[in-house]
Amino acid sequence: MTQPPPVLENEFETEDIFVNMGPQHPSTHGVFRMVLTIDGELITDVTPYVGYMHRGAEKLCETMDYRQGIGYMDRTEYLANFNAELSYVMAVERLAELEVPERATWIRMILCELNRLSSHFMFLGAFGTDVGVFGTAFVYGFRNREVIQDLFEEITGDRLMFAYFRAGGLAWEVPDNFETRVREVLKDSREGLRELDGLMTQNEIFRARTEGVGVITAEDAIDWGTSGPTLRASGVPMDIRRDEPYLFYDQVDFDVITGDHGDVFDRFYGRIREASESIKIIEQCLERLEPGPIVPDRLPRMLRTPAGEVYTRTEAPRGEYGIYLVSKGGNRPHRLKIRSACLSNLQALRDMTIGGYVADAVVILGSLDIVLCEVDR
Amino acid sequence: MNVGLFGIENVNIWVDAVIRLQLIVILMTVVVMGLIYGERKIIGRFQRRLGPMRTGPFGILQSLADALKLVGKEDLRPRGADPWVFELAVYFVFVPVFMAFVAVPFAFDWNVRVLELGLFYVVAISSINIVGWVMAGWASDNRYAMLGALRAAAQGISYELPLILSLIAVSMVVSTDAGRGSLDLGVIVAEQGHIPYIVWQPLAFAIFYVAMLAELNRTPFDIPVGESEVVGGPFVEYSGIRWSMFFLAEYAGLFILSLVGAAVFLGGWAWPLGEEVGPVWQLLLTAGKALLLIFSVFWVRVTMPRMRIDQLMGFSWKVLLPMSFALILVNGLILVYDWPDVVLLASNVVGLIALYLIIDRGITRRRVRPPARAGAATTA
Amino acid sequence: MKGVLKSLGATANAFVRRPVTRQYPEMHRDLPERDRAFPILLWDDDIDEPYCTGCHACERACPVECMTVLMKDNPNHESVGGDSRRRKIIDKFWIDYARCMRCNICVEVCNFEAIAMNNTWTGHEVSVYDRADLVMDLPQLLAQHRAGELDEWVADI
């Protein structure tokens, strides 16, 4: 009995392979893991896994009084600590019905915008590495960030974990030379932005790598709950600073930067332009800054809030950073929930990545500018 | 058969070969260590850092320290690896690069062997190492390594062609006593006593330079070893001395291609204004011209983002290869109809402008606004 | 192509400028006066004893519970013939630097201004081989201010 000849198709059957990107991979920005199903170089499926950095910050805050919790907010969002602290203290202030003095508000605004600047520098640097510039963008970005970080250290005493905002105001007064120092830093930052802009934005190879990659439509971006520069790059002009002003954002003049194409390049370039908007805002704030108290007149030694619940949100560099706070009276939250911008932005990763190349996956993840500590909390 | 070596007459040809090869090995090791140190210093400077500073004055012993550390490391092999292929891969990468040094002229009459087909020999032998890359990637039993190896194979083969064709374009128009055309590197260099070929053939140089970057897996073509994508590519599972040999081969390859580029396009050991200079000056000229190329490679490395594999292949097959074919065609016509040398320059300038326009317009995709989904909300 | 040349120009511009690296162990950066390293205890030079009375305020306020405080009757009190007005004084004090998150709350809650954040480089360079060595006891906590090596800074609110 003769065997039938083998079918050619079966001989050459190929199969997709899985590639584990992360949790230990140079370009996953921390301990993020995505399982890529790849057909040659093309990505057919991607499964993201989060949670490697989960430390239970929300639960820990339930065991702490309102002042102790501030330090933990720093640790959830380590690139935009002031924004994280701000959301938290705003929630507490709204619950306890505290009035924040004017000077404290302006200083908070300056610091938050400076923090946005430093966070965007970090993004520009890390993104350059993702696209494949050999460390240059990273070092430039870091150097510029370092200047801002030095200023933060002079003001708050710490380089990263500031713990400087307090419910009601600020922990202590800024140094005497605050204004001149901020202006110096702004000058340096403007120069640094120009440097990074010149290094990357117009480079043809850079544009070839980023334009038309990781496209997400405005509708999908809204559906996935993205926010911040990721959403604005898709053309949705949503900015909490303008739509729902907190601090004194209604008194300053700035543009909401939107993109047209929703691709990686728009997300990158939007951040560069946003950083210059931040510089504009800070300059306006400096002009409005006047001497005055930085905490309310009557601040209790141990802050207690009435029972109730509140949700505050701020426009962090990565998007909407929200704090949902439930109090049953007393000096500590009953429940704290952090609405993380990065986690929501990450939801859109799958839509953006499928159909792209392996190299695109890295760039797309980089363009979302995730902070894993914030995703996993 | 006996030859002369360093002024000594009648040295046995095998003794002579061994001594010369020994010198090449020493030279290669020293140069590679210097290159690694130099690269780290130069890149540091480009990034407003200092680079290595701890080992010796200005960190000058850093390469030595690294080499010692790598030799001392355990030679690991993953359990799933194919032992023979895994360990042989190193030699397939390392030996060809070493062999390519045989034909390179360092100064007039200073080389291991004068080969009439020297240029052909160099490009032929230095393309063998792709086999080693694929072997390393295949045997490592690692998906990143596999991905990197396949990328390396695709890229190596695609850019081999423009590299060779651009060199051939030059070797076609070399005028010798016996007419035009020579593959002897010594002859090509000697012909550039007055004007180096980069002046006559700038397009060929441009193609050669880009293809050289790709051959060496240097940014913007470092796709096979892309740190942020495939974490080191085929070498991800190697450690210790084996890894250091890959590294040595990489930098030796950079040195050899720079030497070839310097010889073919920049005039090697020849003084550009036509004066005869002594062997020491010739050595310095060769080294200086090669280092100039190497410096530019470092400069490009700190500046450029990495290309993507499809763009890379497209650029090779759709842009560089047709252009180098056209170049050869034009050079052939010039030779057949005996047109003046100015036509060489003119055709190259036209080609360069075309290349500029292609990079300017063609490389970036046209962006389209994503279409709105029917029935979805349009604003926040 | 223009953009590529512009990028090359950007790096060339950096190449000709001075590097910004500071060689750390040899060159220490100046720390700002309100720099926060780890908390240390202050020494009352007038009466030659610690300011700390062991009141447990900082221990209770510490978010990470890195402090352990024990108090005792002051042997140097006026009632027993001494010259101190502190009835109680610190007996034993441990701070686990490995746990401390340097939030400054202990300094804020202290009623006697007896604790401060170290703002010198010694506070940052505390690497040890054994984790247990990071638990500082009373003499270690007091040593620096007693030797007068602290740049004092008091927050004005």
Report the count of strand segments of chain B. 4
Mean pLDDT of chain C, to the nearest integer, reads 84
Strand order of the largest sheet of chain B: 1-2
Task: Give me the secondary-structure category of chain B.
Answer: mainly alpha
Based on CA atoms alone, the radius of gyration of chain B comes out at 23 Å
Largest sheet of chain B: 2 strands, antiparallel
Structural class of chain C: alpha+beta
Proportion of residues in β-strands of chain C: 15-25%
Amount of helix of chain B: 55-70%
Task: Tell me the major beta sheet of chain C.
Answer: 3 strands, antiparallel
Tally of domains of chain B: 2
Annotation keywords:
A: 377 residues; Cytochrome-c3 Hydrogenase, chain B; 3-stranded antiparallel sheet; 16 helices; globular; B: 380 residues; mainly alpha; 2 domains; two-stranded antiparallel ribbon; 14 helices; 64% helix; disordered C terminus
Give an overview of the whole structure.
The complex is a heterotrimer of chains A (377), B (380) and C (157). Chain A contains 16 helices and eight strands. Chain A is an alpha+beta fold and 377 residues long. In chain A, the strands form three sheets. In chain A, strands 1-2-3 form a three-stranded antiparallel β-sheet. Chain A has a three-stranded antiparallel β-sheet with strand order 6-7-8. In chain A, helix 3 packs antiparallel against helix 4. The longest helix of chain A is centred in the first third of the chain and has 30 residues. Chain B folds into two domains: 72 residues, no CATH class; 289 residues, no CATH class. In chain B, the strands form two sheets. A two-stranded antiparallel sheet of chain B has the order 1-2. In chain B, strand 3 and strand 4 form a beta hairpin. In chain B, helix 5 packs antiparallel against helix 6. With 157 residues, chain C is α+β, with helices and mostly antiparallel strands. Chain C has a three-stranded antiparallel β-sheet with strand order 4-5-7. In chain C, strands 1-6 form a two-stranded antiparallel ribbon. The longest helix of chain C is centred in the first third of the chain and has 14 residues. Chain C is elongated and about 85 Å long. Classes of the chains: A alpha+beta (377), B mainly alpha (380), C alpha+beta (157). Chains in contact: A-B, A-C, B-C. At the A-C interface, helix 3, helix 6, helix 7 and helix 8 of A face helix 1 of C.
